[in-house]
Design brief:
The complex is a heterodimer of chains A (158) and B (189). Chain A is an all-alpha fold and 158 residues long. Chain A has helices at residues 10-32, 41-59, 61-67, 70-93, 104-108, 121-146, and one strand at 149-150. The relative contact order of chain B is 0.06. In chain B, 70% of the residues lie in helices and 1% in strands. Classes of the chains: A mainly alpha (158), B mainly alpha (189).
């Protein structure tokens, strides 16, 4: 293992430790308020993934993998995709009128406009997309950046 | 505002040419990111913060991945000469496209003029008029993405999901090959 994967200088490590909480809070804000202000599931999800990428770059891959192991990330990816699909199918079976992706919560119980609890399925879909995007981009980052090619001897199992 | 857009466009074109012409891979990566950030500023000038947020974060992520990927391989410069005949063909094609583009751009509406808004039953008019009542979402971009056109968003999510599955399948430890071939280490999932 070379020195790059173990992290950067103490200055970078301390500052990244201060900043990572703010990045996570900003990402959650972008996701939860996506139906009121600019933002949304995709942008907020990428910000959440960037917080983990910052941890990996500054403090080494063990720290990032301790926060979000690859297995958990892969499961979160699937959970996000299935949650988005479940929202769509719920509109088909439980909703009014019964069509794919109908906004059944907003039709049955329209919240106060411009408030956090409004717009029916849109915040839920934002959360699902954010889960999916954040975990899958983290997995892709770990796959692409930390992968290395290992040459083994012919006929010998590594 | 139009002058700023012109300056931005010139900056982006210069950065793109630098990205193509430079022999240094790191400089090429940074130039590509400069083009992306130019487009982000252009979106802000056109008052589309919803569109601008995603390129900012994606540009940063792609910059990190490309820098780690290019510098990791140890390949810092790119050496090679261009084929003279291929370059001539490229220049001729670009000239033809440029001449056609002059005709096309003459027929386009003026910059920043919403053509769709002049039609009485254009979708954008209906979304802007009924969006808050139909969906309850104050941000009309999110209302279009996740309510009116949610089926398209499902397609995008499927594309992302499939590409991640493909990446995990290709980059894994137990490659289904003969042991004599090189093997790729995988992070245990």
């Amino acid at each position: 293992m070379d020195s790059v994967t173990k992290g950067m200088t103490p200055i970078v490590q301390v500052v990244s430790g201060w900043v990572k909480g703010f990045i996570v809070v900003f990402g959650i804000y972008l996701v939860l308020y996506g139906h009121l202000t600019p933002g949304g599931g995709f942008g907020g999800g990428v910000v959440l993934a960037m917080a983990l990428v910052l941890l990996v770059l500054a403090q080494g891959k063990e720290e990032g993998l301790r926060r979000l192991p690859m297995g958990v990330a892969a499961e979160l990816d699937s959970v996000g995709a299935l949650m988005f699909l479940a929202i769509a199918l719920l509109g088909m079976f439980a909703g009014l009128g019964g069509s794919f992706f109908i906004n059944f919560i907003a039709k049955a119980n329209p919240g106060e406009p411009y408030s956090l609890l409004s717009a029916g399925i849109i915040p839920l879909a934002n959360i699902a997309i954010a889960l999916k995007v954040a975990s899958s981009l983290f997995v892709m980052f770990m796959m692409l950046v930390l992968m290395r090619v290992v040459y083994t001897e012919p006929g010998k199992d590594s | 505002m139009l002058e700023m857009m012109g300056l931005l466009l010139i900056f982006m074109i210069i950065a793109a040419i630098v990205a193509i012409e430079t022999r240094d891979l790191l400089a090429a990566v940074i130039s590509v990111t400069a083009v992306g950030f130019g487009s982000v500023i252009a979106f802000f000038y056109m008052r589309a913060p919803d569109v601008a947020i995603v390129p900012i974060v994606v540009e940063v992520l792609i910059l990190v991945i490309l820098i780690r990927a290019t510098l990791r391989v140890g390949l810092k410069t790119f050496v090679g000469n261009r084929d003279f005949f291929g370059m001539m063909v490229t220049i001729a094609m670009l000239l033809v496209i440029f001449l056609a583009a002059i005709r096309v751009f003459n027929d386009l509406p003026a910059f920043g003029e919403p053509v769709m808004a002049k039609m009485m039953d254009a979708p954008s008019r209906i979304y802007l008029a009924n969006g808050l009542n139909d969906t309850g979402a104050a941000n009309i971009v999110t209302a279009v993405l996740l309510d009116y056109r949610a089926y398209d968003t499902l397609g995008e999510a499927t594309v992302l999901f499939t590409s991640i599955i493909g990446a995990i399948t290709i980059i894994r430890k137990k490659a289904r090959k003969k042991p004599s071939e090189p093997e790729v280490e995988e992070w245990t999932v």
